[in-house]
Each structure stands twice: as structure tokens, then as C-alpha cells.
Design brief:
This protein has 303 residues and is mainly alpha-helical. It contains twelve helices and two strands. α3 packs antiparallel against α7.
Length: 303
Amino acid sequence: MDCSLDFLSRLQWRLRNYFCEDPILRDFVEDPYFWSGQKVRAKICFSVGKSFGLKEDLLLDIAAFTDLLHNASLIHDDLIDDDAERRGYETPWKKYGKEKALLLGDLLIAKSLKVSALISIEPTVKASWSSEISNCVYTAVKGAFKELDFSSKITSDVLSGYTEMSREKTGVMFALPARCVAIAARKNQLVLNSITEIFTNLAVAYQIRDDQSDYYGIKKGRRNPSDFQNNRPNLYYLLENSASYDGKHQEFIEDFQVSLITSAMDLAKLHVPEMSDFFTGVIKPFITLTSPIQPARKILGNS
């Protein structure tokens, strides 16, 4: 089930209203950085929620506070990585300075918690949401620390370390909307665990797609690749420079990524079979790898 344009439009209005009503955020309401994303997490909220029979207004609430948290993570990520642009626009640290960007990210985390706490639903659900947001931030920060400290030259260690780092840094944020929707639908722990595994595997697959885009210098909205220049753990560079490199790392990565997607899809068929069209039509195109071309670092003369 795909997400309706009306749902995305209503979400955009709601998010802009949250910005306008805040004395600090209202100064940033016209910055396209916050409104130019693909809203994949909103689409996840809509599709998972509809499959569970939840009302659209509640799904909008969940999509709003998870989107606020996601934007906070992007601001901090761009600041750490020293990336000057995202989605074709200047990043907040580049536009407003690093101090304001740091505070802006922190403010959006607080705003996410506040929005979730004001939703009209049972206190037990809101308490669970608060715990989810707290755990999400904690786990993502752990993953970010692992990213900064990442170092390995052995292929097996590279893959396991990269997967663990990506599951924490990217996976937890990708799974959050679906978990919050499932909590609102009063789903049991088995379903919650399955949803976590499904979306975490898809998130690692997406991270590989993102690494590939940077490796080849084809990332949308960013003129220059940054992983190689900033010494970030990009799986393509890691395997290419590993002690056991055999020249076939691209094929290996493709096979590994396909296995992640297959595992996620198989699990989804068991627990959310009604979402098969959504995964096929929306998620798979979002994470599918492109055809190999010359790596960006060689184009830039950095080899």
C-alpha cells in the first residue's frame, strides 16, 4: 500500500505548524533543507498503520514526531561529517554555523518528545513511545561512535563491524516509525521484534546503497563525495582496502545486499503480508543498487 499525496501534504502542514509555533524553530521554517526529503518514514507510517487498521490522524502524529527526530539526526550527522550540502541545499551548520546547528538538532529531539507526549492516546502507549525515542537516540549515538572509531583490515571483521555499526546508526532510526505504529496498534513483542528485524535489514541495505552512491560520486543533492575525503567507513572503500581484497568486492557487496533484502522480505511475508506491494513498489526502488561505474575517488584523482 503506497502513501497518499494527501497524507504527505497534511504531514507537511503539520510539521510547518510545529516550526511556526516555536519561537526558535520559526526562524527556520522556510529553509528547504527540512522539506526536501522523500518522506520515506512517513510512507512507512502510513502503510504499516493502514495495514494494522489505525486511523490516519494518529498516523500523522506518529509520522510527525519520528520525522522531527530524523531531521535532528541528519543535522548532527552533517555536522560530524562536515558535509556542506544535502538534498541539493546547504546544511544547517554550513548556513547558520556549527553552534546553532548543534542546538537546532538538540531542539528537534526535544520537540519530537514533546509532540509524542501531547498526542491523545493511552498513557501506556505514550510512555512506550518515549522509551522508543530515548532508545533510538541512544542506539544511534552508539552507532555514530562506532563509525568515528571504525578501523579494520580483515574482510570478515569489516563486514561484521560495518553491519553492527549500520544497524545501530541507521537501522534504529529506520525501524522507529514502524515500531511506534505497531505499539499504537497494541501488537505483541513477536511482531515488534519482526518489524525491527525487517526494517533494520532494509536500513543496512539502504546504507550500502548510500555508500555506493558516494563511492561512484552520484549521490543526489551533493556535488562532491565525502566518505573518502572524511575517512568515513564506506563499505566499498573498506573492502577495496582490506588485507584480503581480491578485486571482487563489488560483486560481494551486491550479493550481501540482496541477502539482506531477501531476508527482510521473507520475514515481512510472515508478519505483514498485506504490505508486500509497499515493499516492492516503494522500499525496493529506494534501496536498489545502481549499475557500476568508475569510482568517484579515482575520478577525483585521490587514488
